[in-house]
TrEMBL record:
Residues 19-228 form the Metallo-beta-lactamase domain. Gene3D superfamilies: Ribonuclease Z/Hydroxyacylglutathione hydrolase-like. It comes from the Bacteria. InterPro entries: Metallo-B-lactamas, NDM-1-like, RibonucZ/Hydroxyglut_hydro. This is MBL fold metallo-hydrolase. SMART domains: Lactamase_B. It comes from Streptomyces olindensis. SUPFAM superfamilies: Metallo-hydrolase/oxidoreductase.
């Protein structure tokens, strides 16, 4: 299956999987992979690496924004098969091991089934492994503060609310913010386009998710690469403010 790969700036690619995005950061022969899509997106994930001239063996690390199945999908596969380290915020490490689960329940989805787009999204999520048990056996917390010594030199930015340990990744050198689910530009269950929070049912603590938009608003950048929706071009701060206004 061909991957939907978009080259957004030198060395940075946004890939649209099946309802979820991931990001590839390249530097020479090495790659940083941010998120991995659903378990069912593995063929697309591997194809996207090939399309940018790389391979799973060249992935220096997998960075996870948060440990929901539509972002964690192939992280354990890469770790177990190629020895790829999987890094998350320290608060998200036990989530990746599935010591607990901060994810919308099937019951909550059914209660919201009357909302436009929810049932088609839910069917797709189930078929793609959205409820599968795929813990990462040995996830790791970031080795230190500040920029990571990986291709792209991403800087983790703790943005709790969607989950306790949700992290965005800021690339100051290229003006890119990889926002995960802390700030998106669309979703199959949303009826609006552009910068926004995901619908309320997806957040572990919505009030903290709203507050984290203020953290993102303070970052410099002109390219927003969200976990869902297309690339958004324009000041990251403006995008975060717009999402906050919509959320209130």
């Amino acid at each position: 299956m061909r991957a939907d790969v978009h080259h957004v700036v030198d060395g940075t690619y946004l890939v649209h999987g099946s309802n979820t995005n991931w990001v590839i950061l390249t530097e020479g022969d090495a790659v940083t992979l941010v998120d991995t899509g659903y378990p069912g997106d593995r063929e697309q994930l591997l194809a996207s690496l090939a399309e940018v001239g790389s391979a799973p063996e060249a992935v220096a690390a997998v960075l996870i924004t948060h440990a929901h199945n539509d972002h964690l999908g192939s992280a354990e596969y890469l770790r177990a098969t190629y020895g790829t380290p999987v890094y998350l915020h320290e608060a998200e490490v036990p989530h990746a091991r599935r010591e607990f689960l901060h994810q919308v329940s099937i019951g909550t989805v059914l209660k919201n089934g009357w909302r436009p787009g929810v049932l088609p999204w839910a069917v797709h999520a189930l078929r793609s492994g959205g409820t599968a048990q795929i813990p990462v056996t040995a996830p790791q917390a970031f080795p230190g503060a500040g920029a990571l010594d990986l291709p792209g030199r991403p800087v983790p930015v703790h943005t709790p609310g969607h989950t306790d340990g949700h992290c965005a990744y800021h690339l100051p050198g290229t003006g890119v913010l990889i926002s995960g689910d802390a700030l998106v530009s669309g979703h199959p269950t949303s009826r609006v386009a552009g910068p926004q929070l995901l619908p309320d049912m997806f957040h572990h603590e919505r009030s903290r998710a709203v507050a984290s938009l203020d953290v993102l608003a303070g970052l410099e950048g002109e390219l927003l690469l969200p976990g869902h929706g297309p690339v958004h071009r324009g000041p990251v701060g403006d995008a975060a403010h717009r999402a906050r206004e919509r959320a209130l």
